[in-house]
Amino acid sequence: YAWDANEEYLFKAMVAFAMRRYSSKSTTQISNVLLCNVTDRVSFWFVVTDSSKNVTTVPGSEVEAAIRMNRNRINNAFLLSDKTLQFLKITSTLSPPVEPSTPVWLIVFGVVLCLIVAGIVFLIVSGIQKHKKKNKESTERENLEEKVEVTLENGIPCEALDLKAGRINGVFAADDDRFTSL
Known about the structure:
- The chain is mainly alpha-helical and about 180 residues long.
- Among the domains are: about 70 residues, no CATH class; about 30 residues.
- It has four helices and four strands.
- The strands form two sheets. A two-stranded antiparallel sheet has the order 1-2. A two-stranded antiparallel sheet has the order 3-4.
- A hairpin with an 8-residue loop joins strand 1 and strand 2.
- Helix 1 crosses helix 2 and helix 1 packs antiparallel against helix 3.
- The radius of gyration is 49 Å and the shape is rod-shaped.
- The protein starts with a helix and ends in a 25-residue tail after the last strand.
């Protein structure tokens, strides 16, 4: 917005209001606030004079304290904030700390709960995979034993062979009564 005489009047009125509230005296008038070195970028400095002595200026510490006390009212009058309306040598008011919409403990609880659920799912899935693998191995063994057919050697049926144990040659068995001795 354009800075004109009306805006200057409003600023002087707000400073006079701040001085009246701070000192509890009704002696400060709009005419006691003087603006100096006003530029196009709305930059200036101001002085507050004492109405009883008309020439003497009010100490800077009192003006700073009055503006600090009424800073929110001054910002609201111009629809500005501490970032847009800056007073040199007067620190800005601290805004209240921002509180998140979700409490921190709830976020931590959610993360821990997700980790626990992921661990349980991992254990269940790995158990199912191990069980399937174990069943598959046992069925392969059964299938391998079924594939071994009964073979006939010299007209005599041979028992299923255990491939891992090897083959026992019955000829060299000492106590075999089926065969005739020599």
